[in-house]
Structures are given as C-alpha cells and as structure tokens.
Amino acid sequence: MEAASASPASPTRTLRRDAQRNRAALLAAAADAFAREGLEAPLEGIAKAAGLAIGTLYRHFNTRLDLVQAAFEEKFGAWAAAAEEAVAADDPWAGFVRYLEAMCELQADDRGMNDLASMRLPVSGYIEEQLMRIRGLARQAMQRAQDQGMLRADLTPEDLAFVIWSHSRIAAATRDVRPDAWRRHLYLMLDAFRADRAHPLPVPPLTESELWNAMTNLGSGASCAE
User: Fold this and answer.
1) Backbone phi and psi for residue 65, each to the nearest 5 degrees, phi listed first
2) What pLDDT band is residue 178 in, cutting at 50, 70 and 90?
3) Contact of 75 with 110, CB cutoff 8 Å
4) What does the angle CA 131 – CA 137 – CA 187 come to, to the nearest 5 degrees?
5) Contact present, 226 and 41 (Cβ < 8 Å)
6) Sign of torsion, CA 86 112 182 75?
7) CA distances from 197 to 89, 151, 163, 182, 185 (A)
8) Separation CA 147–CA 95 (nearest Å)
C-alpha cells in the first residue's frame, strides 16, 4: 500500500526536475553560444550543445528573444549592481571608474553582451527597460563625479556610448591576441574624461533621441523573433 500511494506523485516530481535540468542546460549552452557567436547564434546548435531537441528549447522559450532575455538576466543584474555601487561610492570618481571597468569587463569576452549593450532591439521592452535603468544610475554616478570636480563637466551619458561602441570593436579584435588589451584603451579614455585635462570639444554631444536612433540602426539587422 505504501508503494502504491507514493507512485502517482513520483512521475510529476521527476518531470519537474527534468524540466529544471533542461532549462538550466539550455541557458548554459545559450550563454556560451551567444558569447562566442553573438545574438544570432543558431538555436539548433544551442539545443544540440545542451543535449536536447530543438522542440524542447521552444517548449521552454517561445522565441529567440525569450532565450536571450533569460540568458542575460544575470549579466544585466551585475551591470546594474555596478552602477548602484558607483552611485553609493564614497569617492565618486573612483566609483565612476569602477563602473566603467565593470561594464567593459562584462562585454570583453561576450559578443552577445556587446550586442545588447551597443544596439537597440525594437522588439524587446525588457532589454530597453534594463538599459534605461542602468543609464539612469550611470547618469547619477557621472553627476556625482562632476560635482566632485574630477570628471569633465561637458561629458554626458550619451558620450558613454562611445566607450561601449569602441570597446566592442577592440574586444573583438584583440580577444584571441591580448584579451586584456581593452583595459589600456579604457584608461586612455578615462584620462580624457578628467576635468583637469579637458579642452573644448568641436561638436556637441549626441542628444538622447540621436543616441537611441544610432542604437536602433545598429540593431536593425538583428532578429530575435524566431
């Protein structure tokens, strides 16, 4: 009687555990594939790397975008945490520097993260919401460093896009040659950001609208709807 009463619940528990393992395997395979190949990595290859059929992938994630959002949730969280730490730092300049370094480090070995940080995917409200939240925190960190007198007063949040875009290309070019070369470039940029080394700039910064348009242009060829 004891064996009979236990058996009906056992398959349900097994399926639940199997589903959890399958989801975890898919997310691990997706994170690896997106890091190496970018957001356009073939979903069939991701399913195969996880040891699962493509149908199983679609049972867990209806579209590529659903998989992308789940695969990068942790990295978006780390990026936001770095921005929050910068806002709370006792030394605003040091906090700003640590934020940029953390941001670049998240991108350095991950083509998919480069894609998400540098372009705008029109179909993703979630990703846009995360980017806006992080950008708001970065704006606060910048303002604190400017109020401190260490960060040049004419730097805007839109100017940080140049760090992201240039870092993306530098990381791609040097990943297999000198993986940490991006740090040299970042610190050259940081020297240019110091208030005591500022010189007048020849053109005004991008507006917020221009920035979003530029990111949309970069993302126009990326499809996450499949």
Assistant:
1) -60, -40
2) very high
3) yes
4) 90
5) no
6) positive
7) 23, 10, 18, 22, 17
8) 13
Count of other CB atoms within 10 angstroms of residue 50? 22
* Whole-Å CA distances, 9 to 12, 83, 129, 189: 6, 46, 41, 60
For the cut 60, the answer to whether the pLDDT of residue 12 exceeds it is no
Question: What are the DSSP E strand ranges found in the chain?
Answer: none
Q: What is the DSSP string of 150-215?
A: -B-TT--GGGHHHHHHHHHHHHHHHTTT-TTHHHHHHHHHHHHHBGGG----SSPPPPHHHHHHHH
Q: Which residues of 14-32 are buried (b: 16+ CB within 10 A; e: fewer)?
A: eeeeeeeebbebbbebbbb
Contact criterion met (CB below 8 Å) for 155 and 146: yes
12 or 113: whose pLDDT is higher? 113
Continuous segment of H or E residues that includes residue 81 = helix 73-88
| CA dihedral for 87, 90, 94, 98, sign (positive or negative) | negative
- Quote the pLDDT of residue 2: 37
